[in-house]
Amino acid sequence: VQLVESGGGLVQPGESLRLSCATSGIVFSFYHTGWYRQVLGKQRELVARMDSGGTTDYADSAKGRFTISRDNGKKTVYLQIDSLKPEDTAVYYCNVRAVYSSLEYWGQGTQVTVSS
Fold it and tell me: 15-45, pLDDT tens digit by residue?
C-alpha cells in the first residue's frame, strides 16, 4: 500500500495550493479519506475528511478556505487550500481508513509553508 502526497511548497499569504494524495494497493472506493496537519511540537490535527460516500467534514479552522475532494477512478484524494495564511504552515498528511475493517494508512506528509 502506498500513499504519495504532492503539491506542497513555499507560498505567499493569499495564494492557493492543491495537495494530492495518490494511493495504490487498496480498493480506494472502500476507504474513507482525510487530510491532517501537524506543526512541529504539536499534535496532528484533522483538517478535512470525506467518507466513501462523499460526505465531508471540516475542522472549524478549515471551513471556508479548504476543500477536500476525491477521484475514485484515479484513487486520489485532494485538498484545495485557498487564501493561505501563515498559520496554515504545517506538514500535511493524507489518511485512508477502510470502511469495513480497522485498516488505516498514512502518507509521508508534504510540507506547506506560508510566508512572505
Answer: 999 999 999 999 999 999 999 999 999 999 9
- Strand arrangement, sheet containing 17-24: 2-6, 17-24, 76-81, 66-71
- CA torsion 104→56→65→34, rounded to 10°? 0
Cβ neighbours for 10, distance < 8 A, ≥ 6 positions apart: 113, 115
